[in-house]
Amino acid sequence: MKKWIFILLLLSGTSLFAAQKDNLQTLLPLLQASRRNPAQNQQVLQLFITSKQPNVIFSAGASLVRIPPSRGQEAKLLNVLIRNSDELKKVFAAVILTAMGTEHTELSPLLEEATQSADTALRAYAASAYTILNPDVNTYTDEIVQLYIYDSAFAQRAMNLIAKNDKQMLSYLKSASAKESSSLRASAVTWLGDLQNPVAVKQIVKRAKKETDQEVISALATSLAKNQQETLPEVLKGLKTDYTSAPSATYALALGFMTGNVIEPIKQRLTDKNLNIRINAARAAAYMAGVLASPQAGLYTTDKQFDTQLLKGLIPLLTAMSRSDESTVRPYADNALKQISKLK
Q1: Domain boundaries, the chain
Q2: What is the pLDDT of residues 150-200, one digit of tens each?
Q3: Which of 30, 255, 323, 335 is the most buried (most CB within 10 A)?
Q4: Rounded to two decimals, what is the model's pTM?
Q5: CB–CB of 333/325 below 8 Å?
Q6: How many alpha carbons lie under 13 Å from residue 260 in its C-beta half-sphere?
């Protein structure tokens, strides 16, 4: 899943009035752009400076951390710090200045205070910026990991300063993946999955066996799919897990994200003697249909039409299950058929 989706979730709470006032709907493509020219970045900076809506300030600020303004805009951001009373705007101005590569160590107290914010995302940005300015302090490892779902590059920049080597970074990520905060665990397993490292993959597989939170399950499934060459045997083995348990959803969803590459293994398991395996295989087929029907399908398949036809090849087996399998299994076969029928 794209990291920017979390910013969009924050934007969804903006009122219609705010959207009209700041022309937010029109600017969304600009805020999400992977690159901008100087004039476009100036437009985002002006939005950040002038807006009075917290969601807009946050979104424009986060966008400027990802694509920082030129050094020539430094004075404008310093002016925000000196003359503006909006704490959110001041904190983000400090984070943006840090992202620009400036070394204003006098911003450290402001950023350190913001690490105590009740807002998870703001804490993550502030802690990462503080760490970049104070690389000898490794107090905020969890907050840096948390930032990964918002801005992977800025999080990596902060992590590079406190982790002496890959082994230490993996240690921080493994620790975060087992913490109480579900959003932190989700960010940690997402980062671990992106590393495509054998030790990281081992931790993902371990977490998949016990995770119960839906947000983390989704992140785990995505990470398992990204590393399918190494994880597929474990994921297929996991289909025998009790279909009412949370981990069973992780394995079925992971197969869904793997798309056409795993149609044959799913087909084989739709006729397995084990009830859990049959149910979870049917769930995987339903999830895969959902993935292929989604606007993000291109993230998981290189040939949507080909994979769709492969998935439709399961219709005869699923139809037979729907008609003659055990009563516990039939609803899952029915749902898979329903989801597949939506594919064009």
Answers
A1: 1-125, 227-344
A2: 999 999 999 999 999 999 999 999 999 999 999 999 999 999 999 999 999
A3: 255
A4: 0.89
A5: yes
A6: 16
